[in-house]
Amino acid sequence: MRAAVERLAASKEVAIVSGRSRQKVEDFVRLTSLFYAGSHGFDIAGPDGLRHRIGEEALPTLAAARDALQARVASIPGASVEDNQFSVSVHWRNVPEALRGEVEAATRAEVEARHGLKMTTGKCVFEVRPELPGAPVWHKGAAVRFLLDYLINARRAHGLAGHEVEDEVVPIYIGDDVTDEDAFAALHGLGGLSFLVAGAGESERPRETYGSHVLADSDEVQALLHALAAF
């Protein structure tokens, strides 16, 4: 998969948008030519020196919630807490079904006990993220819009396109998580394509989605990346 991404990035602008921290994703992928949006887009960096961070004022509160959650779920088999810097992920995939409600209740309690945080859900995970009063809602979809605006303005600044550059850009987003729906929705009306990667048994009957297309698995994702690179 990494080779397919690297090949695509040789001729196209490529961004990885993840719920994990930006640094974790960069360290894993190890491709310096990409844009990276970590923590659901709260921390964005690019190969040209771009840095955009949202919600830094919430970091101490997130750290306190992380520590409290680690203590609260330590006795629940299979539960784990992941620090993603601008978000905290509480994983319950390996938690016995009868105990999953305890994980949700613990997460909700710690969020409600603190100002400036909100709880969302993903694939077998509860997410704790900053909630910024008076600021636009920030998520993967907002990050995608930010990156599109940034790249379009950069092309204009370098004289690579005219004022109708939006018509020359076809954004494509691939994702498999519930949190990717924000990005799928963001592409509506932008002439983009969005691909839901369906889980096992979902390829013919995927969940309700804003995605415009469905891919069955990572093999189909890789084939699509190679096809786009050749286009």
Can you tell me about this structure?
This protein is of the alpha/beta class and 231 residues long. The chain folds into two domains: 1-54 and 136-230, Rossmann fold; 57-130, Alpha-Beta Plaits. The protein contains seven helices and eleven strands. A four-stranded mixed sheet has the order 1-2-3-4, with helices on both faces. Helix 2 links the parallel strand 1 and strand 2 (35-38). Helix 1 packs parallel to helix 7 (218-230) and helix 5 crosses helix 6 (181-187). It is globular, with a radius of gyration of 19 Å. The two termini are 18 Å apart. The model has no long low-confidence stretch (mean pLDDT 91).
Number of domains: 2
CATH class of the largest domain, named Alpha Beta
Q: How large is the share of residues in beta strands?
A: 15-25%
* Helical/strand content category: alpha/beta
Give the integer mean of the pLDDT values: 91
Instruction: Write down the secondary-structure element order.
Output: HEHEEEHEEHEEHEHEEH
What is the count of helical runs? 7
Distance between the termini: 18 Å
> Helical percent range?
25-40%
